[in-house]
Predict the structure.
Amino acid sequence: MDGEDRLNRIEDCLLQLAETMGLMNTTQSSTHENMKKLLDNGGEMAEMQLRTNSNLLQVMEVAQLLAENQRAFQEIGKLLDDKMTELVDSQRHTDERLDALVDIVQGLIRRLGEEPPAGSSREDELDS
């Protein structure tokens, strides 16, 4: 190998080294851009996670309110059932008293509708 071949080989190696350095610079620049995008995306994802956590807290608060309202509605339902039972009992008592009154009135009507005994008048019967 003579000096000129050696210089050509060194020159080729330097050209390859320059090309490789250029590719490395391009790759490094691209890597920096990608890292910046990743960091930006990471920041956006962190903000989205915070919003999601906030929304979840709101959902949990609403769920708690719903559970409290459901308990209150159940209590109101039980109270209504109790009052309805009282009303049914009261209506039954009223019906019994009305039935007794109807029986009394019907008895009076029957007695008044009968012929008065001999020697008495209807007025005497009503007075007794």
Observations:
- Residues 3-112+123-127 form one domain.
- The mean pLDDT is 88.
- Residues 92 and 98 are 10 Å apart (CA to CA).
